[in-house]
Amino acid sequence: MTLMTIQYPLVSTAPTTTRLLEFTEYGGPEVLDKATIDIAEPAAGEVRVRMKALALNRSNALFRSGTYVFEARFPSRIGTEGVGEVDAIGADVTEYVIGQRVNLLPPDNESTHGYAADYNNVPQEKLLLAPEGLTDRKAATAWVPFLTIYHHFVEKGLAAPGRWIVLPAASSSVSLAANSLSHHLGAKTIGITRTVAKKAALEAAGYDAVIISEDEDISARLLEITGEGADFVFDPVGGPQLEKIIGGLKQGAEINVYGVLDAAETPLPVFALMHSGATIGCYMVYELLVDLTRLRAAVDYYLPLFKSGQIAPVADDKLFTFDQSVEAFQHMESNTQLGKVIVSF
Description:
Quinone Oxidoreductase, Chain A, domain 1; 12 helices; globular
């Protein structure tokens, strides 16, 4: 009997170069430029992914503009979320095979390993199987939004039946995911959006109520809608609006700020918090991503819900190709989108 020796890396195709998106200085979408580099073979423990779709995040724009928690090292790559197909595997890869559709979790270093490229070599621990039954555009944004809300909505049980959940930036992918999961869990949702332009679309997306922050008194409307005040706020905006929200909360409510979409300072309204008895905290999804036991529990929780259609990610309707990446970022940063802006390859 002759034994066959497996030669790594195992590959399905043999591309030699990949396009990628990079920037050499901080700034707006216009600083992004395309480059071409040679494709490296996947190292031991790595998987090469041929990208199908890239999901753009507000954190990518903050990173590119120099206002995020992580600094860029120039020339810097960009991109932290997407979906693709396994194209090659290195030695010691045990969980994936060529041809599988996979999601890419945020890299440890966006500057050196950002995913805005045709091909990416990714450590196998940064991959998850893509949910069944979703298009590439929706699958591209399936995991990060729902993983972001897992700790507070599932582990802590803050979206329990009958509770009122306040979701600022209601058209964002995370707020839309929170809206979907809240309804699955029996909670009720209030979306906050800046202008009336998206109100009808947000109501169609299933929010139980929508508040227009430019036109309405947020505190008064929250009390009017809920009767006693809202129970939980999951806030990616921050800024001066936070104090207006606190005025409409139930005694002892909880607030979590997980973003700073408002460029203004976020004051800590001590007296408003003391009056309401509300508690406030901050959160980043990375604390879940590095806890493999909890991450696996989250995946096992969500996969059947995705497959059955009980929850669903939302992708913006506007279509962009890789060559239109600058336009895609401009669209996201115009605040006219509903759901995640996707770049297709």
